[in-house]
Amino acid sequence: MKLKVKNKGIAIALSIIATLIFSGAPANAAGEFGTKVTINPNGGTTETNGLKIEIAGGQMQVFRSTSEQLYQGSPSPDSSDNCNMYNYFTVAIDATADKIVGCAYYGGTSSPNEVLWASGTITNNLNADQSKDGTVTLTLVSDEVSTGKTITLEIIYTYEYPRSYVDIQTKLTIPAGIPGFTGAKLYWNVDATLGGNDSGNQFTGNLTDGSLATGVISEDGTAIEAFNQLPNQNMRAWAGRYTCAWEVGASDCPNNESGWAFNGTDAPIGISNSEGIDNGWGVQSRNVTGSGDWVNSWRAYFASCLDSSVTNLCTLAGSSSVAAPEDDPSQLAQTGTDAGWMTGLLGAAIALMFGGISLRRRSNV
Q: How does pLDDT run across 300-347, given as a tens digit for each residue?
């Protein structure tokens, strides 16, 4: 069972309830973080009509073949709550008074240095063909991290129909004059549901161009979620128990490290060696050391191994249920894979020969 995230204040809750009862406001009414935007609203229902992507409050929900791909503390992102799901953005500020901006807690325990996102706006540039693809830009502004100083995070989500991935770009703006400022880190951590399969297997490896791919695959080998490092980027990536980033002392974490988003420390690079866990994955920017704008970007896959455009990604992750390959330059390389139970010693031999892939198979729980 997963712990619910914090509720908003009673006054806000009563206000929302009153609005719904007396005004009949729709679920995507404008809130303090703007209005929820949906990319490809008629998609996400089959293997061929792409991803349906809901965005609000600095979080998103992805639907593929009618199934939610991200754990939901509530059914979908909320334009008045940036903490209702487990894929939120957090920023650590290293200064005379350290701060953790965002949802800096696990269960009912908050970081003593927590500062909330105070407000936000959202715009979109979606195409005229039923909003199937395009960009959504969401901007979050924090409460004060020091007297008179706030930080801003701009997130740009780009989707091209009917791809199995979303490109994410962030611009973190740090103001000058934060007392004792020495650096900042941006985290994005994800609780995977893998199309309804809440546990799976972790994997990490390289693209043909040498860039990193780290993620999770469902136990039945049909669903993938993965981070893909884009050119000229230098993100840290991990996969393990979904609580690892927030829960100090969590088990089944890469390098036995935990609580980095709670404490503002560096995320590990790599995957957990544990089997049979409820898993997640995430990324962290490198430490930024000055004021100004800091940009990062990465690709997030939410793919079916029945989709021929991602055959090599699924082969890399160890799936034995893959479609015939398609000529797609975004595919991952078939370099060193453990295909699991079905391939046995042969899969292990391939992994040893190439040496570039780390994979852990996990039993049903």
A: 999 988 777 787 777 778 776 666 565 444 444 332 233 332 333 333
- What is this structure's pTM? 0.81
> Of 32, 92, 93, 27, which is closest to residue 58 (Cα–Cα)?
32
- Structure tokens, 10: 């009673």
Question: Three-class SS of residue 205?
Answer: strand
In sequence order, which ranges of the chain are alpha helices (DSSP H)? Answer: 10-23, 260-263, 311-317, 344-354
Tell me if 249 sits within 8 A of 144, measured CB to CB: no
- Which has the closest alpha carbon to 258: 350, 361, 250? 250
267-291, pLDDT tens digit by residue? 999 999 787 789 999 999 999 999 9
Which DSSP letter does residue 45 get?
S
> What 3-state class would DSSP assign to 287?
coil
Give the separation between CA 292 and CA 282, rounded to whole angstroms: 24
For residue 256, the SS3 value is helix
CB atoms within 10 A of CB 119: 16
Beta bridge partners of residue 141, listed in sequence order: 119, 152
Closest CA to 90 of 11, 181, 155: 155
* 50-103 residue pLDDT tens: 999 999 988 999 999 998 999 875 567 877 777 777 788 999 999 999 999 998
Q: How many CB atoms lie within 10 A of CB 108?
A: 9
345 class by beta-carbon count within 10 Å (0-12 exposed, 13-18 middle, 19+ buried): exposed
